[in-house]
User: Fold S-adenosylmethionine-dependent methyltransferase from Thalassolituus oleivorans MIL-1.
Amino acid sequence: MSLPASLLVCPVCSNTLEQYDKRWQCRNNHSFDEARQGYLNLLLAQHKNSKAPGDDLAMADARARLLDSGVYEPVSNLLNSNVQGLPQRILDIGCGEGYYTARLKQHLANQGCAAQIVGLDISKDTIRRAVRRDRDIQWIVASGARPPVANHSMDLVISLFTPLMPQGLEGIIHSDTDIILVNTGPQHLIELRHIIYDEVRLDTFSPIAKMAAAGFECVGEDAVQQTIHLTSSQHISDLLMMTPHHWRVTQAARERLLAHTKLDVSIDVVLHRFRLSKNKIAIAGTESK
Assistant:
């Protein structure tokens, strides 16, 4: 997808990137070639936390298989139902292999809105899978802490199951931009956790305090609690691989879980919608005078 030149910016100097066929370049001659698969890599080496940051190809494929089965569709529907109005420019931070991004695009298209959407993830492997899902979304490899998009350009920012760094948001949004964050509740995957852990903690995470400290106020909250039915050991394995538990589980616990061929699992997901606080808008208005 070719975006207006004003939307993507150079990750080195923040000047506008102009597109010349498969090459993107700023006025300072920093140049980035579009990959043959159709995505743009704007992740600078100094912003990587490892040689290959983010989820690997096996995790991306596991997520794609499970999400394509439809078991997480209630989460996608929760997101789509909370998108207000018809946003023209959308950024999905931590988009993974693009399931939620593409379904949001289709949801808006059904309402007559041809939104320009940027899907951002730090993992090159997951972005490669995202391109396969929808080539009309601009997929980029980049850091969510430093989204390489133009100042005040985004009408909607979404981030699902990703530790969001709000300090990177203020420059890319305007006063009416909605920021939608989706996180897990205390009962999320509780049955799976009881199988793989000796002790299960019912911790929950709310982004409200962290966002408030960065100048964003919560203007809406919604949730979905539902039981999903995993009907094969492959789906159970895929679910484990797309969660942080994949990194923590012992081999014995993994084998115990994968001995199941069917499993009913609770989905417990909480959505928060944020906007810049009125105080923050007022301060910004004063400083601009």
User: Anything to note?
Assistant: The CA atoms of residues 156 and 167 lie 16 Å apart.
